Amino acid sequence: MDINALSRTGQIQPQLQTKTYSPAEVSKSFSSFLSDAITEVNQAQIESANLTDKFATGQIQDLHQVTIAGQKSSLMLQLTLQVRNKVIESYQEIMRMPL
Amino acid sequence: MLVNNHLGILERSLDAAMLRQRTIANNMANIDTPHFKSKQVVFEDLLQQEISGSSSRNLAAYRTNARHIPFGNSGITSVPRIVSNPDGIVQNSGNDVDMEFEMNEYAKNIIWYGGLTQLTAGYFTKLRSVIEGGGK
Fold it and tell me: Are B61 and B96 spatial neighbours (Cβ–Cβ below 8 Å)?
């Protein structure tokens, strides 16, 4: 058993790589993130609507599945709206900055 | 925009639920009426056929051009139907109301109606929150 193994770790210099992203890269990754999130929200809405139809046609006996899907889609929509509000708010805040 | 397919389905289902409620109440009220036959509301299967388009009675009109206006049924047109079995007999008086069955159907209908009202309310809440911009 090599007890002194820890002493060797001092030789390893912590290499802090500060990778710099170009503005184009940042905006691209952010836009893809945003588009993924919106797609997910839309998917939740569609799923909720489909479950509603199935419940109306009596194909679903378990009401909780429908209500949970409905609440999920509703919450995701609220979150999206709030994020949008915050983004617009911050944009207006920046625009008000005295230069 | 407001009156789309989903809202139509919900509305029709709520109508059917109310009709079923009245039908069951009528059955229960007539439990001692001689020769009374209990009635049932058939709706879910009809709606299912309508949505999946498997209904054979609903023939699409023959159109020679895709731009012709389709006549006949378009959209949700399923209406609940009241059916009855004229040969059913439960009591000696010719009455075929089964109290336990009616109570069961009544409870099921209440749950169905409650769920539908919740979903309808949720639909409108979502629309309103979008219109109001999420409420600041």
Answer: no
